[in-house]
Amino acid sequence: MNARRVLSKIVGLTQTTIGGLFMIFAFLSFYNIFGIQEMLGVSAEGIGLYLWTFIIFGLLSIISGLFLFYEQ
Amino acid sequence: MDEPHLKRDLGLIRTTMLGIGGTLSAANFVIIGEAAGMAGYAVVPIVFVCGILSLFTMFSYAELGTAIPLAGGEYTFAKVAYGGFPSFLTGWFEWLSNMFYTALSAIGFAYVVSYLLPQINIPLTAVMVVIIFAIVNLRGTKETGTVGTIITAIVLAILGIFVIGGWSYVQGTPATTQSASPIGILGVFAATAYLFELYLGAEAVAAAQAEVKNPGRNIPLAIVLSAVVLIALYTSVVSVAVGIVTPDVLSHQSSPIAFVAEQALGPAGAILITIGLAIAGLAATNEAIMAQSRVLYAMSRDGYLPKGLCKIHKRFCTPHVAIIVGAIITVIFAATGLVNFVVYAVNLGFIIGFSIVNLAVIKLRKIAPHLKRPFKAPLYPLTPIAGIAASVFLILFIEPSVLILGLELGIVALLVYYIKMVGHHRIRIAFGGISLGLGGFFAFVAYLVGTNSIVLHGVSQEVSTLIFYVLLFVSIIQVLAGILNLIASDR
């Protein structure tokens, strides 16, 4: 395995993990666990937008990371 | 070595029971109360009319099921008639709706059981039901068909006891008079659209056609037989129910049929009917898992989804990967308890499926007139047109939020189709660009946090600094990922 493939696997795995953490963070903020809504200064009405934004960011990161991780 | 394939080991009785079992969901006997509130005593003829409307589409299923004896149901029919994106969209909605239907049946089972065992955990029970029946399905259609046949026979026997016992009770009580529909013709239409859901699931026969013995004879017979049995059963149950309890009272019960059974047969009757409905929930879960896995298998076989999903287990001859993937997603939906979302998805998916099947019958009669059709829909083209009209009629009474949901699911389907069909390398370049964009965005947010332009309430300076470094790290990873995806070789 050459250096570039090793780097792709490391970066891909890290990006996928970041994406997964983003999606978990989306649900934590939606249900206001650990008072995240107050910390971010987000109103309860506006949290839906944050939820979808984090989920989309998370999904894109996971897919991109998987492309790198499974690179031939 | 020959590729393992699905075994044809379902006879007429088991195939018919597959259609009945797929339809007899516990939730169906709950919505009868709500419909009675909408339409009053007119709920009895409405149940009958819904069955006839459903039968029109079942004729189309029978014609296509025998002419195209391959696994996949509506998806396979759409593929032969239209191909490309329409067939993918049909399969996509069919798979989703069957998966949601599995979750709904499992949740319905859990709610019915909680009538006798109020201490049970609803989501956990639903999840356990999905897992158990996924394992049963993994072992093969022989076991699946046998278990399903026994369960359906027990449910039919219990509902038979309810109908006979209730009918005897009705004969001994004075007749009551009330207007047919308390809220007029609109109430009747709304109840018709609402109760059409009663007959969803009988098309499971078509989805399992690759495993049916002598499909030319057994599939149309099983579809028509199951429709006739269901029309007789539902009409009898509802007649007895509104004969014992007024529609208004019925509409306020969480488990209307169990309530009626308690009035007519005493507490033992309520317990018996609850057991019957709980078993019905299990049967519906079983059939829906089988149906969704076969659709996923067929879509994968045709290259619309990853090839791994169409692997057949060498020992059990079942699409084990498709069953496991579907079960995992179903478990997630069952565990959330998002009942409304699940019901909406089920109804929309089936309406789209019914419309496509009827359109496919008309299209194939035109483009493939010499296709061998062991069974032809009677009164063609009136029957498929009536089926389409019934679907359009249903859509008129669907809530706007459901239609928006359908649009969203359609957009997701378009994205999946595009990603799969447009080519791996171009998609990687697109995701490389997206990752670079995300990297730039996170670098900007890190800058705002680092310069205190964004105030994080109740967060100390040390934690704020830590967040800055985390965001910087995320930004670097996103940029690196973007570059690596952009410079990837075209293989």
User: Helix content range of the residues of chain B, please?
Assistant: over 70%
**In one word, what is the shape of chain B?**
globular
Give the class of chain B from helix and strand content and strand pairing.
mainly alpha
Give the largest interface.
A-B, 23 and 22 residues
CATH superfamily of the largest domain in chain B: Amino acid/polyamine transporter I
Compute the CA-based radius of gyration of chain B: 26 Å
Global geometry of chain A: elongated
Tell me the number of structural domains of chain A: 1
What does the main sheet of chain A amount to? none
- SS summary, helix count of chain A: 3
Q: What do the pLDDT scores of chain A average to?
A: 82
Distance between the termini of chain A: 10 Å
How would you characterize this protein structure?
The complex is a heterodimer of chains A (72) and B (491). Chain A is mostly helical. Chain A has one domain (3-69). Helices cover 78% and strands 0% of the residues of chain A. Chain A contains 3 helices and no strands. In chain A, helix 1 packs antiparallel against helix 3. The termini of chain A are close together. The mean pLDDT of chain A is 82. Chain B has 491 residues and is an all-alpha fold. Chain B has 2 domains: 12-422, Amino acid/polyamine transporter I; 424-486. In chain B, 75% of the residues lie in helices and 0% in strands. Chain B has 19 helices and no strands. The mean pLDDT of chain B is 81. The interface between A and B is medium-sized, with 23 and 22 residues.
